Amino acid sequence: MNNPNETPPEQGQQKIARRDLLKLGGALLGAAGLTQFFSLNSLAVAPRKSGGAEGDGPKWGMLIDINKCIGCNYCTYACQAVNNLADDMLYNVVTVETTQSGEEFFLSRPCMQCAEAPCVHVCPVGATYHRADGIVAMDYDLCIGCRYCQVACPYAARVFNWKDPIEKSDKSPEFGVQEVPNRPRGVVEKCHFCTQRIDYGVERGLVPGVDEPATPACVVACPTGARVFGDLNDAESPISKARAEASVTLRLREDLSAEPRVYYVPPVANSKTPFIQNKEG
Amino acid sequence: MLPNIHCPTVRIGKRSVIVFPYWIALLIAGILFGLVGAVTVLRDGLHVTGLSNAVPWGLWISIDLSAIAMGGCAFVFGVIVYILRIKRFEVIGKLAVLLGFLGYSTAGMVLLFDLGQPLRFWHPVVFWQPHSLLWEVTMCVVLYLSVLIAELFPIVLEHPVFHSHPWLTKFRWMGSLMKFAHKAAHFFHGAGPILAVAGLTLSLLHQASLGATYSVLAGRGVWFNQSAPVQFVFSAMSGGIALLFVASVFVFRVMRPGLVTDEALKDVARLSGGITLLLTYLRVWDWAVTNYYSFNREIALQTEVLDKIAPYSMTFWIGQVLLPVIAGSIMLGAKKVNFRTLMAVSFFPIVAAALTRWNYNFAGLIASITYDPFTPNVVLNSYAPTWVEFSVASLVLSYWLLVFSLAARYLPFQSMKEHH
Amino acid sequence: MTNLQPKRKTGLALLVSAFILILFALLTLRPSQGVKATAPLQTADTCKDCHTEYYKLWSVSRHGSAPVDCGSCHRLSGEGAHPEFPYSVESQAVTCDVCHSQIAAEWKASRHGEINLGCSSCHEPHSQQQKVLDKTQLICANCHKEQYESAHDATHGAAGLTCETCHLGEDSGHSFKATIASCNECHSDIHEAKRLIAAGVAVQPAEGESFVEAAPMEETQPAEAPAPEEKGGITLPSWLLLLAGLLIGGVGAWAIFGQEPGTPNPEK
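^ inputs. structure came back:
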């Protein structure tokens, strides 16, 4: 777990192990006489749920270089403008955290888009689901607002729509204009890696992570280029290059095996960059 | 006709006043107050509650879980009456079915207010997601509520009004409807053992899954343990049967003397007492395992933070361990104890079952683990229920008590076989 | 072939003169005209119906009065063609830098330029004004929080000076380097000022400047934040405790002094 740069063969083995476990579970359930039950269900929702962790095709991920983050909150503002979010409903937050040696740094946190997302596992109606490209998306027409996903998410990445949606975010138009429809009161919302941009871009042959119109708003808005976006399965994508370049990357709370798709470049100790502020300094 | 029902009275001076109408008036007032909060939350949305993104589950979920626990007596007595076929519990079994129905319908009612989209309450039944424990719980609760209704149906139909009301002959359609209803009731009564088995399966599944709802969440530290499902099942049995004991002393010994023997009533208390002691034993071991055997920095920090909140540690050691042990011991030796003491101590397992759920619900939410990579910590979130939450709580509690009181007053728990 | 010679001659003359003309044009071409040349459409009138907000910001801006409209930055692929995406803007180097070459040079030399913190980080591109986060503070404070706070608490902050006063003056420009000239604007005689302070004479604002009321020192001391464990938790109303107490007391009293439930009423 301490080595975040997992090589593809390891992932493959994990995949197989997971599949075997699933098979075993399936056999047990079959013995319980519930197979009918499950096949019915898979018929009902199969078309959308084409794999979260496995499968070919792009798997979108993000890399955030903590050394480059200056805590300007532009990612949050762009997110607010694009998703029309009130100030107390942030998908993306920037907090000040400390290293073990007491140095302060900025930690910006979008949704981790976990491959084994706890929120997807717990949703009682399947309103939270994995898209084929690995993004954990929401079906706001299905959500009943039980908030189990909020309770399950270890990253506090989910926000509940306690109130009616706001007219217009005060971050708009300076940081962007609204690109997705408003969500009704009483559903749980989340960061979706700006799927509207990814889908739009991919349709037109643009490359998310390279072409700005197809890249999540927070990545585009970042003034220092601390955020890198792209296809984790493509060795030539900006994120794969950045991951290869970084000597070490980490993911938040890897002990939980949620397999997040957001990677961080940890702050370099005794770095000369002004962005890591020493407590004593 | 109806057995002789003694309504509780209170002596004021020389007069003896029947409490019933005043009690019902009080409950209706409670419902009216509750309706104000219910309308407020449905109209204005959940921001009128004290819930937040950090603590999204609060008082209502605790009430919901507790109400389901209070229905825990129904599946135990379904087994005792229909599968073990112990005759002396037959009448008490009917009350257990009523309490089960009340518990589950109360839970469903309070959940309706807790959902962000109350009109989509039926979604889990149609849009299946079998990986989710909450889906499984919802399905089990829906199915079990149907089982309980099927079990309750013949009991309610035994009321003479459904047999010999003048309207039944005056309006022919009513008569034929009743004939059909009695046929259905007869069918359900005959299906008793099947319903009991279904009830047992569904109950064990969802009572355990309610514990698992919390215990599968690895990110929440103190919740992540294996014994929660077992504890939820046992505490539902201990609390639910203790409630059944209190209710049955009231309904049978006070209001319908002679219908149930004192020995049978005391056996109910003994059963609850035994399960309570077993549960407390498990509970203490669970505490030891959480705090000692699987020492984990995060969980240690969480427990430390939780211990600082007085209600948490106090309710655990006094409410969930000390008092239930005392109560369990007394109830286990019920044969030598008078009913007054038994009824008083029966409240402890009931309260303990509710406290377990209350504490469980808040443990992982109030003391939550941060996600920062190098110095993860435990933060104390805050939650203060608002009047709306207490108002809706009053609504569902008044509903529970009102239906129970009406049933206690009017339902014949005696079998009316001679009418068939 | 001979009869073609005069034509060839004129052709050659035309070619040469055209060449000279083009050369001349290239030499004298102003960068702003260059931008204009790539966007021959008067696009603003076409765009304003849908992109009202941006149009409003643009129309009152300096770009709005200069011949720089939507198409200048949002390159359109042809007559009447809609841009592929609202963000189809070329890089800063071929939009902003073309006209604002002096500022671009200053910026490149600055720390902002070093980490490639581009124009649109601080400027709203449609109004060209500084981005507004909070009406009372400059965008600078968004990143330079510590400097902003310390300046705000100090004499300069109290005197109503902002970041711009020193870091974006005539001399410094977009290099953001404060120069001695900035200091000299107020402190032309530093020794005189020192003497006055020592003598206890209140410092007067420079001409055209005004002091804002300095905050008392006590208030500027940050209050000791309570430890996170101290706050939070579950807060229940006190009447609930009272209710629970009444219930426990009632049941207890009944258990000790009350009647056995179900014993026949003595009146009956």
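Residues 29-41, 205-229 of chain C have pLDDT under 50 and may be disordered. DSSP finds 18 helices and one strand in chain C.
thumbs up if we can close this ticket
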